[in-house]
Structure formats: structure tokens, C-alpha cells
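Chain X:
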Amino acid sequence: MAWSYRKSFGSGPFRVNFSKSGISYSFGVKGARVNVGPRGTYVNLSSHGISYRRRIDGRHPSEPHVVPQFNPQTLPVGIEEGHNIASADIYQLTDTDSKDFIRELTEKAQKSPRVNTLGVLPLILFLLILAFTAFSNRTTIMQPASDSTLVRVTSPIGANIRKAPSPKSPVLKSAASDQTFLLADSTDSKWLKAAFHHSVGYINRHYAAVQHVHHDAVTDSELVLTNPYAGYILVAGIIVFIFWIKWLKQQDKRRFAMELHYEMNEQFKQVYRQFADHFAAFSRSARIWQYLNTQQTHDVKRHGGAGNLIKRVAVQSISANQTPLNHFTTNVSIPYLKLNNLEFYFLPERLLVKRGSTFAAVFYKNLKITSSITRFIEEEGLAGDAIVVGNTWKYVNKNGGPDRRFNDNRQIPICAYSEYMLTSDTGVYEVITTSKQGAMDAFAGFLAQIGSLQNKMAIDH
């Protein structure tokens, strides 16, 4: 049966901790405590029930790439203006509170697994070298080279092969033009002796000629084992690499391991209990889109009367729980949203943003989500939960009626969708639309409540 214990004593900011794993020492104040023990160094940041635990490798990682600070005044006022809808550079998105956390995440994401370069690649090279040195091709001569002397029939109408060298001798066989036979004797000045079917006959020299033919050797190549110890070397090498690769995997797991543990007080738990339910309600919307850009148009006649052309794409993936890295462990579910060029991970206290192998994060107190109902002329298939509020024509007149000059003119539904704009002063700027009205309202409200609690608790790390 597993057992554990933990006792501590101390005075002021200093504390000694006794546990199953050994003795550790910690120092700090309420809300920020550093713990140094046999399992590594962890920074615990807490404020009235929220606890953040970060594992450190014992050294300070290098600072991330520094870029000019984002100017919030450059954020678009609304999506009605013509512009691309995209967040700022990933290096600008992180707020001040999250820099240490993001530095560690990005550093781990950009590391290369040692098991590939020091384990799998050497194993492949070992097998290739063993194959090239243990085996070789052996050539066997199936039929040696030879020269043959033939009798070839030159007469265009063929010739008769007779039993004796005489025109009155019985005919044994009729030969066609260009047919060849082995030469048995050529001493007779008028007749050539030819061999065929275990028999011999004579062909008049007027109808045949002697032909010399060279036959190349016939060989066969086979792969043979030249190193009698190759089997033993292979077995020994595989065993060594199994243990080596297993050890490298354990080392990679330690290098990439990151733990995020949450402890919440009752006030926070009451808000957080609805976290998964709110996100599930959002994900159940039949269609979820991301806006890429919008552009004003004056050609309303050809666009169903629309004044803005919006390029949108379906959200690529949505999941109730997705970790941002391998070997990332936490005691809560992490809702996940994959956009066109970003990935969103909704942690209990902050939004984690990932682009490639680089991370950024924004506390919910710094994230703003504004919602509105937008009318969208839907030319794609109609979602099952969409609310149709009107119709228009693909080609419209100034009075809103159909333009009769177009034969393929058809009616298009106008739907009322919910539109959500996610922004932050650091440069987050994404627009998400749901076919179901209010699909994200509860989830956005939950994030706003978390942000409000953070402002009241004055969370600062």
C-alpha cells in the first residue's frame, strides 16, 4: 500500500518540510512561496485559493525574442471596416503576469526529443551498417561462355535436309529460310552436315551457309551471409538499444515534464463548477466560424445587398480537454479551440495561446469578450440551429427585389448569428461566430467572472 506523510515547522518566511521523498526547505510569503526539495524546485503562486505550481530545471531559461510593444490603439474599432482579423505577433500577446509561465512552456516546446537523435537514428544507422557488412552478393556461373558454329538456311524458299549428301537421297526434313542447325561436318565441298533432333542430315551449300555465334556466360546473383556472428551482433545490439531508448524516453519525460496544479477555495469552486458545462454548450453549436478578414464593397447588387464581404473558415478543432504539450499534467480539464493559425487553451485562470512551438498567455482579467447579434447572408448550407430572420436575392435591385437580368438568381436566407470578439491590450484579436444564438454567452460570462475575481484578488506574480 502506498503511504505518504508531510510535516513542516518554521518561523516567519522560512519553513522546513519533512515528507516521504526527503527534507525540503521553503521560504516566501503568503501568495508566493518557493520550495526547494529532492524532487526539484517548484514555485507556488497562490492568492485566496488559486495555486500555480511551476517546475524549474535549476537554471534560468533565456529570455524570449523581444519585439516592440504592441500599441492597443491600433486595434480595429469593429469588423465593419476593411482589414484582416488576426491577433498580433505571438511574442507580444503575453501579459506581465504570465511571462515566467510562458517562458518555461515555450522553452520546453522548442526542445528536440533526445530519443530521436540519440536513440532512433543511431539504431537505424546500426542496422544499416550491420546489413552492409554482414551480407554480400555472390555470383554463380550457370552456363559458361561458348562459341557455336551453325548452319543457316539462306534460300528465301527454304531447303530440304536429306539423309545422304546426294540430291536423290530421301528428304528427312524441310527447313525454312533463316532457320539454323548445329554444324556437324563441313568437309564436303557441296554439302553441309547438320544436326537436329538427335539426328543428322545434309543441306546443299547452294541453299545454306556456315555461321559462327558467340554465347555469353549465364550467371546468377544471390545474397549470402559473410559474417557468421551477424545474428549475435544483431540480438545484442537490439537489446542494448531497447534499454538505451527506454532510458532516453525517461530522460525526455523529465526534460519535458510540466505540472500545473490548482487548489481552489469555495468561492472559486462555485464559479468553476460550470466551466465544463458552459464550454460544452458552446461546442454544441452546429457551426462555429472564425473570421479572417472583412472588406467593404460598393457592389451590393452582386452580393445580395451586403455592404461587407467577410472571409471566414470553420474552426478546425474543438475539444473538452487537450494538453498543450506532451508530459504536461494538471488536475483540471483544459478546453481547447484550434483556429486558423492559433490554438487556444482555456486554463482556469488564463487563456493560453499557441502558435507553432511558441506560447503566449493572458489572464482573464486582461481578456475582453464582447458579443453581438449579426445578420449574415448565408450562401452555404443552412445550419440546423440557425435562426433565419429574412431573405434576399443573390443579385438584387436597389429596391431589394430580384435582378431579372440574371438567370441563376436565387433567394438566399439571412441568418442571425452570435458574434464574439476576443481582444486584449497585448494584441489578442479574434472574432468567432456561432450559428446558434448565445452559444458562447455562458462561457464568455464565466471567463468574465474569473477575471472579476482576479481583479478583486489583485493576482500578481
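Chain Y:
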Amino acid sequence: MDVKLPKLGEGADSGSVVSILVQEGDLVKKGQTVIELENEKAVAPIPATASGVIANIRVKEGDKISVGQIILSIVEASASSAPVAETNTPTFAPAAPKAKRAAPAPEPEPAPSIADESVDNEHEVVEGTPGIAPAAAPSIRKIARELGIDLRRIRGSEDGGRIVMADLRAYVQRLQKLTAQPKPAAPPVPPAAKSVAESIDFSQWGAVTKKPLTPLRKTISRRMTENWNTIPHVTQFDEADVTALLELRKKYAAAYDGKGAHLTLTTFALKAVVTALKKFPIFNASLDEATQEIVFKEYFHIGIAVDTDAGLIVPVIRNVDKKNLVELSKELSAVAEKARDRKIGLEDLKGGTFTISNQGGIGGAHFTPIVNKPELAILGLGRGAVKAVVRDKQIVVRTMLPIAISYDHRLIDGGTAARFTIELVNALENFAEAEIKI
């Protein structure tokens, strides 16, 4: 039997073969992964649909395949057949039955020299059945062949659609009339269309190296372009004093490590974001553009932007409001590792309500993250910096965390964004120690 690429999920109908895990002659079991397919920011395992021996592999690494395309063929092991030993001895599929000898197709008539003729009421141009010549006398066929006319394009006026000389003459006259008519001017090409897919030969200025875009990078490019072009972005900037928060992290870090949970600033940010989202639910909503309705979500699934060698991947941590910091710390480490190893599932990338992008581990301060549609907002965190700040008219040294919140200005106004930012800063600066204790 043939193993075909199944549907991978909503909106996912193709992908590129990352690795092939079997060889021809291998014995496989139903459900065993046979290839890995890169699609929609994830590497999805594709299982065998039956047990048996691999007879023929139809794809190779790097191939782009679509839903329904044959991946490989398997010779199924039936109950009546002898068991197949797990050896490297190649197994051959049964020979395919010989195809019946096809009857020779009639010699096609020459195509007409003019393809854009119109249809009149008396002598209509028709599309006949390919390979079947219409009824006509040998003399008519000879004239049509010499003139380069396809008789299948002429509707005969005699019984049974038989073509006579009058039909052929009328057809020729119509072609002459069409030739004499001036062709309509081509519509002007929009200026934007002229610049599409313009290729520049950079090698004329020096040596270059070309590298094709990976499917993941193409997906990121397409989505970022769509998000930026369809969402009116505004970014709200601020800073949060995380001096006390970092002291709490230092105090409890060893206890969390003992539980197999790495306590990070992103873990605190997850909880602080949920606190702000509950007070400003519009930031946890989406716009249904088809019905022009605002969809307020009563769940808090937070996407975490993960920097990988292949590109940016955003797995989703679900029900953040229902998990403690130990659970969130473990899950955060797990999804980040799976994303970097490209073992994240497609469903793990869907259903987010808000996204956090933390660049603090890399460096930098404020930046303008792009909203991850259909979400309405995204939080960007920079690297905390030790600064001299004024507190109660005194200059003190504090660790200040740069934050940037980009939002969809169609549904979120500047005043609401400012109040949300203040609430988030307050949640970070006044994080309750009771929530951290194990």
C-alpha cells in the first residue's frame, strides 16, 4: 500500500522533508515515524499507516511535498504470510500488472493559427473531444489540413454535426474578420506590480554566496509581512524597577533548581502579564474580521518567542493563570528546548492570546516587537541595566528593565495601553513573595 502525506492541521497542506528515518527493506510497525516534515514553524513526525516492509521510498530530503502525495510504499505483512525477519535483506514488491496496450491515437489535426476568435450565432466555434475527428468528407478534411484549420473547432450544420463546405467557408471568413479588427489596448500595469520580484545581480560588484530560504524562514517572512501590513502598530515604552524581584529570584533559585525548575525573569513576567490581562481584557482578545466582532478570551495562553538557529518560533504555554511558578518554570524550559531541537508540535504553536519576547539574555534595551496576529498585543523585554535613579528625592542604584508593548491600534487606544503598561510595571515591581515560596 502507499503511505500518503496526511493533513497536518488547519491551514497546513505542505512541507519540506527534513529527514527520512527508514530505508527500503526495513520492517516498520504501524504508527512508527518514517519521515520528519518541516511545516509551519515545526517539525512534524509522519507515521506509517500500516505494518510491513518498506518497498519503495518516493521522496528525498529537501523535497517539498503536499497533502495526499505518496511518501513511500509498504508491502503489508498478512496473517497468512510467513513472518518477515528484521534483516537487511532487501524485500521486493510484487510486479505490477502489465498495462493493456493502448490503441494508437489518431493523428491530431493542425491547430488554427488564431486562438482568440469569437463565436457567432450561425457558425459557433466548439471544443470537440480530444482525439475524435468530426464528421466531414475527405475533400473537406484535405482543405482544412492545407489551411491549418482544426475541424474540431467548427460546428457542422448538417445532420449529426457533419461539416460541409459552407461551414468551412464561414469559419474562414470569420477568421479574416477577426484579423482585421484592431486589438484592444492592454490595461496599464499598476506601478506596484512592476517592482514585484525584481532580481538584482549583486555579483557584478563582487563575490557573493547564495542560500535558499528555508520553509521556516519563508513562513516567518510571510507572517511578519502580513502582521505589519494589516495591523496599525503602536509601541508603548517604559521601564520597571526589578531590583527587588531579582533579589527574590536569587533567594529562591536554589530551591527551584532542586525541583528541576529554573527560575527566570520570564517566569515572573508570565504571572505579571496575566495580572495585567485580567484587568485589561482587551489585551487578551482578538478581532474576528469576518464578523467584525471582538472575541474576549477567558483563558490565558501565553506565547513565548524562542530564538533558534532556524529562526523565531513561538510555542504557547496554556492556562498560565492556573499554574504556579514551579510548573511554569519547568514548562518554560521544556518548550524552549523542544523549539530549539525543532521537536515542537503544530498544536503547540496555536491558540495563543498574548506573546512575550524576552531579548534580555542576548542584550539590548527597547525594541518594537511585531504583534503576532490574531493576537492584539505583544510584550518585548530588554536586558535589565543598573542605573542611578531618583527615589524619594534621593539618587539610588536600581536595576531597570526596559519593556515595550506593541498593540493593535484598531481596538486598543493609547490611554488604555498606557494604563496597561502601568499595571504591568506595578505587577513586576511588587511581586508577592508568597507566590514564589515552594
